[in-house]
Every structure is written in structure tokens, then in C-alpha cells.
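Here is one chain, start to finish.
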Amino acid sequence: MPKMKSHSGARKTFSTTGSGKIKRRKMNRSHILTSKSTKRKRRLRKPGLVSKADEKKIKMLLL
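Its structure:
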């Protein structure tokens, strides 16, 4: 049986931490930034973690 390939889109979007959690980028940070407050944009800079419910699905894509 051939090797399973990881999903190329998911590989570029998500990364794994040392403890096995999955990091993601927060939404609403790509354009129309003038209408968003500085505080909101600063909070969006930091990476978020994938929820426990979706973690299993994304790990399957990254295998």
C-alpha cells in the first residue's frame, strides 16, 4: 500500500507545537484593517490553537 500524503493546504496553514497541540492563524487580519481598532489587531497577531473538537480532523490531514 502506498504512503499517505499530507494535505498540502493544511500543511501550510497549521503547525504542531511540542506538546502536540495544533497552532493556527487567527482570522480577520488580512485586509480592511483601517476599520479595526489597534487593540483588536494586536490581539489577532498572536497564533491561536485549534479546538479540541477539530483537532482530530486536522491531525488526519497532517499525517
